[in-house]
Amino acid sequence: MEWRKLALSDYVTAVRGVPAVGRGLGQFLAFLNRAVGAPFNTMHLIGFSLGGHLVGNAGREIGGRAARITGLDPAGPLWNNNNDRLRASDGVYVEGIHTDGGTAGLGIGAACGNADFFPNGGKSQPGCVTGICDHNRSWELFAATVTYNHLVGQRCNNMNQVDSNSCTGSRLNMGNDIINKSGSGLYRVNTGRNHPY
Q1: Looking at 44, 53, 73, 135, which residue is catalytic?
Q2: Which segments in the chain show pLDDT lower than 50?
Q3: 186: closest CA among 154, 163, 147?
Q4: Is the pTM of this model over 0.85?
């Protein structure tokens, strides 16, 4: 979806615009469903940073019927207590991939979906020396999983286990393009420095 003019305006203006743009996208998806029979159970909405919250609002507009929503390091500043942020009820299965969620991070760093993945702890990424690199790594990792489906998370009981890399629960593949994916909980994924990670 092309919303560059608003997305690249000052950050506060862009944040304020996310709900309306998301509703507009949801209305367009509802139109496709009515006009040409595009089934909601084949829709996978993917958004990066502010776009992570935008696709959540789009999913909410169609009653949480999109088969899958993926938030790629959903934006953090001004979103922690924002009612318009991405949440698990926005789709049938909602996944968050968090790569820059530290105190000064660009990502939200908190669980927001059915399943939330925290690559390398979710704050900084191997091979990155800037926050923007950490933030962008979310879509780079996701893109690699669409091709290889190779990054597997270990379920954690809490964020302390995510931080200390001491998770011992069940395993779930992060990302990929499986439309009817399911799962829940917090997951730690350890990756490499370079593609395909």
Answers
A1: 73
A2: none
A3: 154
A4: yes
